[in-house]
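quick one before i forget lol
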Amino acid sequence: MQSFACPPGRAGCSVRLSLCVLAGAVAQSGMTSPNLEFRPLTPELMGALELIFKGTWGRSCWCMHPRLTDAQIRALPGQGKAKDRKRAAMEKLAQRPVAPGVLAFQGDEPVGWIAIAPRPEYARIDGSRATPRVDEEQVWVVACISVRKGYRGAGVAVELIQAASAYAFEQGAPAVEAYPRAGTKRTGDDNAYFGTEPMFQRAGFERVRAPLENLPRNWTARVTMRLRSPNAHVPA
């Protein structure tokens, strides 16, 4: 069973109950838990996040691409290259009471990361033709998933999705939404940073919208998937 560790004063330290509710989906899938501990990102954990991103797109993106338009990225304050200013921006987000994402640890080793936040925080996602709103539900969104090389294929991503969803529910999110690649065709790990449909199915999510039509042919087909909070009110 997962455990969730939080520093003093950081939201999300009562996540165990939600994880127990969500764990059924993974148990039914037959997957074996990699015995992970989850920690909301804090400034002190930026080094762990950098280790997870080593050798991946994350070292230049720092999960700021979904949050900011190109113009906003160019306008980021500070000195140095864009990747350095994006890192500083993520560290600033990590100072807030509600973290911009969750890290997975196996023992002392950081093994995975997932970015999650209320949808309006993701300017690029919220304004994209590929990911328009389904309805007016105030969803949180899983924007990026990254599992460290050497720890992939062991169910880390699915448990990260569950842990991040539980964290969002503890902050009052009525539902968590994602826009993964449609279908079951395999793709390279670094091309699956917004997840795959089977991955979210194993985490308990349901498809709420099929791939959109009339989009450019070279765009990746994406479905919309959603997991409701066990405490959320379901309209009659």
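fyi The longest helix spans residues 156-170.
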